[in-house]
Write a structure and sequence with these properties.
CATH class of one domain: Mainly Beta
CATH topology of one domain: Jelly Rolls
CATH architecture of one domain: Sandwich
Oligomer: single chain
Mean pLDDT: 91
Shape: elongated
Order of helices and strands: HHEEEEEHEHHHHHH
Strand content: 15-25%
């Protein structure tokens, strides 16, 4: 049986988005760019396939070149709680397990066909040694992620479900168009039925 070849981005385009992302915080010369890109592993993920499954060793942080990924936690009753979505130009991993080389607590799945660039933890350490300015870059990335999650926790404690839903639509309009209502509900911490009723009430106003 001949397996269908996965589409690959041209070499030049493959790194355009990630280099622009990095360039927001640090400046690289040609040698540094060459070393950085040599560590990246391109991967195509079909819709509903997994980048990472709970229990697997978390070895990579992934940059989304195209498509959409979702990270979620599955409890003992198989209830999914969406932790985050990642669209093109975003980074995603199970950060605690990636940094500490632990089995994943989260599952990361493709919501649609996606192209990602993976950076292995061992290669990240090499990058810090060979191009020290990347320590600044990833410090900023992790700081921003921490701030985002802190604000989300505060919003969950202080805002109603309707207010959180409105903020989600305002902040992530493109994500809202690409994911299911069930996935949005699991991100907001409400049932799909509750979200459906909330949307129905909103449309009547």
């Amino acid at each position: 049986m001949i397996r269908k070849q996965k589409p690959k981005l041209p070499a030049i385009l493959k790194y355009d988005l990630i280099l622009a992302n990095v360039g927001k915080h640090i400046t690289l010369d040609e040698k540094e760019i060459s070393f950085f890109t040599s560590l990246l592993k391109e991967k195509h993920i079909d819709k509903k396939d997994f980048v990472l499954k709970e229990g697997q060793l978390c070895q990579y942080i992934s940059f989304v070149n195209s498509g959409l990924l979702r990270a979620y936690y599955l409890d003992k009753e198989d209830k999914e709680s969406t932790i985050m979505f990642a669209v093109a130009d975003w980074w995603i991993t199970d950060m605690y397990c990636y940094i500490n080389r632990k089995p994943a607590m989260l599952t990361i799945q493709a919501v649609e066909d996606s192209q990602i660039l993976n950076l292995k933890k061992d290669d990240l350490e090499k990058l810090y040694v060979e191009v020290p300015k990347f320590e600044k870059f990833f410090r900023i990335i992790m700081q921003n992620a921490y701030i985002r999650e802190q604000l989300r926790i505060i919003q969950n404690l202080s805002l109603s479900a309707e207010e959180r839903y409105h903020q989600f639509l305002t902040k992530y309009p493109q994500v809202a168009k690409q994911v299911t209502q069930k996935q949005i509900a699991s991100y907001l911490g409400v049932t799909p039925e509750f979200l459906s009723a909330l949307r129905a009430n909103k449309s009547k106003r």
